[in-house]
Structure formats: C-alpha cells, structure tokens
Amino acid sequence: MTEHFRDLGATQFGQTTDAATRFMEVREEYLPSGYSMFSTLQAVSLDDEPRIGPFEPKIAYDGDIADTQQLQSWVLSTAVSAVGQ
C-alpha cells in the first residue's frame, strides 16, 4: 500500500513502515502490564505481490506515536507545512 500511495504522489511522513507492507491496517494495544504490546493484523491486500520493506518516510516523526495530542500538533506544525512547500 505504501508504494501505491507514493506512486499516486502521496508523501509518507511519520515512522518507518515494517516489512509486512501487504498489511493495510495493523492495530496495537498495550498489554495490562504496560511492558509490551499486542498487535493484530486487520486487513491484507492479497492481490498485491509481497514487497519487502521497510519504507522510510520523507518526513520522520521521532516522538511517541501513541501520544495523540503531540502527534496531531506535529502534523499541523511540521508535516502539513513541509508538504505544502
């Protein structure tokens, strides 16, 4: 999916994808201990050939991806203005 969006002119920003780039939606939840996460793969594109990642973003985000408020602020202040240039 990452490659398809890039081909359409999308700018990838945020964090590097993992190698399982056929998966279109991965959900992660912290376990009750808070020491680890549990991931589930929600959707896969079986029509696409496997593509080995990872894909590096044009604009990298080094913060905590789970901190929604910080991430939203970063998107508005950094990524949106950089894409518009």
Architecture blueprint of SSEs:
Layout: H1 2-7, E1 13-14, E2 23-30, E3 37-44, E4 59-60, H2 68-83
Parallel strand pairs: 1-4
Antiparallel strand pairs: 2-3
Model description:
The protein has 85 residues and is of the alpha+beta class. It has one domain (2-83). 26% of the residues lie in helices and 24% in strands. It is built from 2 helices and 4 strands; from the N terminus they run αββββα. The protein has helices spanning 2-7, 68-83, and strands at residues 13-14, 23-30, 37-44, 59-60. It has a two-stranded parallel sheet with strand order 1-4. Strands 2-3 form a two-stranded antiparallel ribbon. β2 and β3 (37-44) form a beta hairpin. The protein is flat and about 40 Å long. 0% of the residues are buried. The mean pLDDT is 80.
Instruction: List the secondary-structure elements in sequence, H or E.
Output: HEEEEH
Structural class: alpha+beta
Number of helices: 2
Determine the N-to-C terminus distance: 25 Å
Strand composition percent: 15-25%
Number of strands: 4
pLDDT averaged residue by residue? 80
Tell me, briefly, the overall form: flat
What number of domains? Answer: 1
Largest sheet: 2 strands, parallel
Poorly predicted segments: none
Please give the radius of gyration in angstroms.
15 Å
Helix amount: 25-40%
Strand order across the largest sheet: 1-4
